[in-house]
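Tutorial handout. Part one gives the primary structure; part two gives the three-dimensional structure as C-alpha cells.
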Amino acid sequence: MDASTDTTSMELPLGLDADTEEEYASQSKLLQEFTSISSIDKAWTFKSNNGIGSLAMFSVSQANLLANKRRKYILSATISKESSTSVNFQWSPFPVEMTGVSTMVPSPSGSKLLVIRNPENESPTTFEIWSQGQVEKEFQIPQSVHGPVYVDGWFEGISWNSDETFIAYVAEEPSPSKPRFNSLGYKKDTASTDKDCSSWKGQGQWEEDWGETYAGKRQPALFVISTNSGEVQPVKGVAKSLSTGQVVWAPSNQFLIFVGWSSDPRKLGIKYCYNRPCALYAVRAPVFKSETNEFEIKISGNQDSPVINLTQSISSAFFPLFSPDGKFLVFASAKSSVDSGAHSATDSLYKIDWPVDGQFNSPIQIVDVIPVVQCAEDGCFPGLYFSGFLRSPWLSDGCTVIISSVWGSSLVLLSVNILSGEVKRISPIDSKFSWNFLGLDGDNIIAVSSSPIDPPEIRYGYLDEKETKKATWSWFDISPVFRCSEKVKSLLSSRQFDILKIPVKDVSSCLTKGASKPFEAIFVSSNSTKGACDPLIVMLHGGPHSVSVSSFSKSLAFLSSIGYSLLIVNYRGSLGFGEEALQSLPGKVGSQDVTDVLTAIDHIIDTGLATPSSIAVLGGSHGGFLTTHLIGQAPERFVAAAARNPVCNLASMVGTTDIPDWCYFETYGIEGKKKYTEAPSVEDLAILHSKSPISHIAKVKTPTIFLIGAKDLRVPMPNGVQYARALKEKGVEVKILIFPDDVHGIDRPQSDFESFLNIGVWFKKYCK
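Part two.
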C-alpha cells in the first residue's frame, strides 16, 4: 500500500469503506428529501371578524437537521364554504415560525392565545397572553415557584377557566432544598446561594421519577395563574404521593378536576404504559387576593377532605372532559390494562353526571358509555383505542364527541354519542388510509388523512344534508399546501399498498374466538407488473401491545422508495382487534408472535408477492425482540436484520429497566402480575432467559445492525450491546451505532436520519 492510498483510507469516516461511501451519499440525499416533509400536528378554528366563514391556524413541524431540533410553524387559512358541495381554504402566503414556543392554547372564546416558553436551563418559564394584534401580557415565573410546564401529552394539562381570568396547568414542583457543606462540615444556614464559593451543595435524598423520557424531571404538580396579574398559586391539599396531570376546570370555576397517579410503592415507567393505576380527583381551586370562595363541594362521609376521589370504583380514569353544558364529565379508562397487567389494551369510556349544587351522592354513579369489546364481528367496531380528546371535540348537539381511534390496521374517525353510547365510523368505510382528527369548524370536521404512500393531506368533512337519516359524512379534498419534492412524488407514485388478512396458523381449541380470527399486515410494493418481486423488508412494531397503522411514515416511505417491498405485520397482541386477540399473546412472547410473523411471510410468498431468497427484518423495542428472535429461530429466512433498542435478554433487563413488571407479564401472562418482584428468583431468571432471543443466539448467522440510544431507560443500552457482542464472538457480521443523547425512541432529527440511512445502506449490501 502506497502513501496516497493509505491517506485516502484514513480520510474515510469510521465504519465506512470505499464500496459503501457512494451508497451513503446517494441514499442520504434522498432521505433528506423525505425528512423535509412537514407534519401537520394541530389545528384550531375561530370565528371570523365579519361573521362570514371562519379562520383556522395549523401547527406544523419540520425536522431541522443542522440544529437537531424540530421547527414549529403556524400556518393560517380563511375557510369559506362556498356551497353545499365545495369549500375553499385561502392560505396565508407563508408560515410563521414559533421559535422557542413549547405550546399554545387558545382561550374558550378564541379571543386570546396562551403561549408558553419553557427554559432550556434554570431561567424562568414565560407565559404570554396574546390578543389579535399584540402580546398583551408577559409573565416570568421563576424556578423558585415551579420548574418547566409539562407539555408532554401525558401529564400535560393546561386549562383556561370559562371567564378567561385564570389558567390551571401542570408544572414541575420547585427544586427541593439540599444540604450544604463547607470546610467545617454541614452548614445549617440555608440562605446560601449557589454562587457561595465557600460551600457546596450536597445531593440530598434520591427521588424516583417516572422513567423513560422523564429522567431528571421533578414531580408534576398543579398551579393556577391569574391572567390579569400574573400571580401564581400552587394548588394545595394534594398528597405528595400523587403525581398530577391533565387538569381541567369544573363548570363552577371553583374546582379543578385532575388525574392522579400514586407513587406507592414506587414509580414505574409510565411512557407508553397505560397499566399504571390512576383516578380522577376534584380539588378546590386556590383563592387569590381578589377572590372569595363560597361554593362548597361535599360527599357524604368525606366532607373534610380537600381532595375528592371521583372514581374510586374503577382502577383507571384519565382524559377528563366536560360536556358543553357542564352537566356531565366524560373520561377514558384503561381498566382492562391495569387489571390484566398489559401495558396497553382496549380502552373504555365513562361518564359522571355533574351535580349543579356540587353535592354528590355516595358512591358516585359511573356510567359505562363504551365498554371493552372482547371480540368484534367482522367489519364491526373493534373497541376503543385512542390517545385523548381535543379541547373542543363536541358537535352542536352537546352530546356527540369526535375522536380518532385505531380500527384494525387503520386510524379512523368516530362519532360517539355520550348519552346513548352509539358509535359510528365517519371516515370513509372504503378508505384504507388513516385519518386523524384535528378540530371542528362548527359541525364540520377538519382532519388529516395519509397512507404509507401518500403524505398527509387536509380533509374537510360535513354531514350531507340529503343523507341526514343515515348520518352520511362527505369529504372535501383541500388544495395541497404541504408539498413534497417532485422526486419524492414520482417515487411514491410508483408504489401501492394494501391491508392483508392473514389466517392464523394451527388454530387450536384452547384459543378464544378473537385470537382465532385472522390478523393483518400492511403490504407496500411496486405497482409495476413487470419483472421479479422487489426484495422484502419485514417491519415489526414494538409494545407488543401497539400497532402499525396505514399512515405515512417518512422513514418507511424512504425504505420503500429505494426499492423494497414492505410487510408491516400487526401480529396477534396488537391494538385495534379486540381484547381477546390482544390478551392471547402475554405468556407466549417469542413463540406466538414469531409464528404470526413467519405465517405472514409465507402468506405473501405463497401468493407470489415476494421471493424467499431476499428478505430482511427490521424492528424496535419489542419489534427488536421479534427481530432477534426470528434470526435465531429461523436463521435461513433472513439475509439481513436491523434492531433498534431491542429487547434481547429479559433476565438482565428485569433488573435495569424502568418497567420490570412488563418482563414478568409478557413472560408469564396474567400470572406475571402476581409473580412480579424486585428480587427475581433463580427460577424466574431461567424462564426469562428461555423466553429471550439470546437463548437462540447459537443459531444466528444473519448480518445485523444495532441502533441503540445510550440514555434509554426502557431497554437499557447493555441489553442490545451484550447480544451484539455475543454475535461478534461467534463470527456474525455486526454493526453497532450508539446515539449518546437519545432515549428509547431514537427520534431526535439527526439520530433518526442517521439511523435509517444506515439501515438503508446495510440492507442494500445484503438484500438484493
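Part three, for discussion. The first strand starts at residue 39 and ends at 47. Residues 1-9, 291-304 have pLDDT under 50 and may be disordered.
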